[in-house]
Design goal:
seven-stranded mixed beta sheet; 14 strands; 325 residues; single chain; alpha+beta; 9 helices; Arc Repressor Mutant, subunit A; five-stranded antiparallel beta sheet; SH3 type barrels; BirA Bifunctional Protein, domain 2; 30% helix; 3 domains; globular
Amino acid sequence: MTKDQVLAILAREKEFVSGERISEQIGVTRAAVSGAVKALRKDGYEITSVTNRGYRLESGPDHLTAGSIGAFLPEARMGSVLVMEQVDSTNKKLRELSYEGAPDGQVVIADAQTGGRGRRGRSFYSPEGKGIYMSYLLRPDTAPAETVSLTAWTAVAVARAMEKVSGRAPSIKWVNDLLLNGGKICGILTELSVESETGMVDSIIIGIGVNVNQEQEEFPEEIQEIATSMAAALGHPVSRAALGAAMVAELDRMRAEWPAARADYLEAYRQLDITAGSDVMVLAADGARSAKALCINEDFSLEVEYPDGRKEALSSGEVSLRICR
């Protein structure tokens, strides 16, 4: 804990910070601060120390820790952000915390997942040290029908975070895939829990997996043609700590604005969407059908037209979609 707090202070300050000031700020001894600095150096952080001036962080590895993320978020917000080295699934871990009474806005972030999942039970490639695997908890006092657009809202929030950190916004393939240079860099999985007595929502867990710093050849062969990373698409690495913190901030903003800001998120979604106007394959339980994607409707459903002229508004929970190229 002390190590993460010291790292967060040094990363925020940028300049020299005295050991006395650090010890007073986090309530530990000077010896504890010195020990934390030694531990950080062992982890690969370059920290300069100068007598009568203190410590300054010069550089560090791309580690995803509470300290590295805490450099970009208020200390009070980090109280409900759990950062883990590895977990089977951030959604599963957050579900456990939810059962234990975790608050609205609780976040779980992992450096690696051993059992990450996407939609329809598919596995999600979640290697160590390369991506961001995050789950966000909401406890809205609402009926399930009112939450169907949250996945689309989340896509906008994550896209905004990516643009804030990298300077470039991804495109969105309806409903939950974010793309750069035509390759998938992010998937979103929303899971809903309903109270049986009232029929109202007990909790919503939004799982987000982002490919950040993988090299293209690092992806498994079966997904190399459809997946990419932010680094591969942009041509340079991206700070995972900065991006993770920006995602938390944008998800907090989304939570505060939902559902009143529907028009704003709908406009942003339509601007980023690449599905409308495309020929698509609608993959439903009864088979695949070709169609023309017409537009994103007011409720974030996708309006499509089939070859026989019949039109249909698709809900994200009913179908998957493949854009034909």
